[in-house]
Write a structure and sequence with these properties.
With about 270 residues, this protein is α+β, with helices and mostly antiparallel strands. The strands form three sheets. Strands 5, 6, 8, 9, 10, 14 and 17 form a seven-stranded antiparallel β-sheet that branches. A six-stranded antiparallel β-sheet has the order 13-12-11-7-15-16, with no helix packed on it. Strands 2-1-3-4 form a four-stranded parallel β-sheet, sandwiched between helices. α2 links the parallel β3 and β4. The radius of gyration is 20 Å and the shape is globular. The model has no long low-confidence stretch (mean pLDDT about 90).
Length: about 270
């Protein structure tokens, strides 16, 4: 088995549980090598270990998801919805084949308008969300069309278009719903809306979404997962499903409900804790 591993946190490289896992994999006759950029990915790689938190997982996904290599998240972070597996669980599961592959929606975001780059300088793909944020003090008037149908203007600090994977990330913190990974939807969630009668909107994942804005500042910030760029008034962000899915390895003992209860303490009644 050929296994690449990806680490963002330099301090993790010498962590005993990291070096121990890599040594155990090599002892089990796996070919293990490090990936730091897309050019490092070797042919016939079977899977990539993302070693860190969810941010590390998203960075790993930007490197290999479009070439179809599955990613297994090894959790050294704080929450870990995408990167949920403990290091001690990984070796046994891989050696025994006790895992499955989930297919997660990936978004493709392109910019249209005067002098806009058709393919933005950062990677256009997002596993969690595409978002627009105000850059200065002025509120944004955000115009959204879904499959060509125009929604009422959002007056807000920003707007998030989230996948199911991203429903427990930025969208959740802005008041969006939690979506099971296999529900196959997108969620539009306003950020700090000034028109208080707007609510998150759930759409089929095949929906094509166009986002434009107006603001006295004339500019805004666009983000695709953990990457950002400045955009100008008059440009449109076009968001739709990518032509590929993220292959995420899920161990048999893991699961979304387990992650909700262990990470977010879902349903815990604090009145009964002592």
């Amino acid at each position: 088995m050929k296994i690449g591993y990806f680490i963002l946190n330099e301090g993790l490289r010498e962590d005993p549980s990291v070096t121990g896992l890599l040594s155990d994999l090599e002892a089990a006759s796996c070919e293990v090598y490090e990936i730091r950029s897309k050019s490092d990915v070797l042919p016939e790689t079977d899977l990539v270990l993302s070693m860190g938190g969810d941010g590390t997982f998203l960075s790993a996904a930007h490197l290999v998801s479009d070439i179809g290599i599955p990613i297994l998240g090894v959790n050294y972070g704080r929450i870990g919805f995408l990167c949920e597996n403990r290091p001690e669980e990984v070796l046994k599961a891989l050696m025994e084949g006790d895992f499955s592959i989930e297919y997660r929606t990936v978004l493709n975001a392109t910019l249209k308008g005067p002098n806009a780059r058709r393919n933005i300088g950062m990677l256009p793909y997002s596993v969690n969300e595409v978002a627009i944020h105000r850059k200065g003090p002025s509120v944004l008037g955000i115009r959204v069309t879904v499959n060509g149908e125009t929604l009422p203007t959002y007056w807000a600090d920003g707007l998030i278009v989230s996948t199911c994977s991203g429903s427990t990330a930025y969208s959740l913190s802005a008041g969006g719903p939690i979506c099971m990974p296999d529900t196959k939807v997108l969620v539009i969630t306003p950020i700090a809306p000034h028109n208080l009668n707007v609510r998150p909107l759930v759409l089929p994942e095949t929906t094509k979404v166009d986002i434009a804005f107006e603001s006295r500042d004339g500019v805004a910030t666009m983000s695709t997962d953990n990457q950002t760029t400045e955009i100008e008034q008059g440009w449109t962000i076009h968001v739709e499903m990518a032509q590929f899915s993220l292959k995420r390895i899920r161990l048999a003992e893991s699961g979304f409900v387990r992650a909700l209860t262990s990470r977010l303490f879902w349903g815990e009644d604090m009145r009964n804790n002592g």
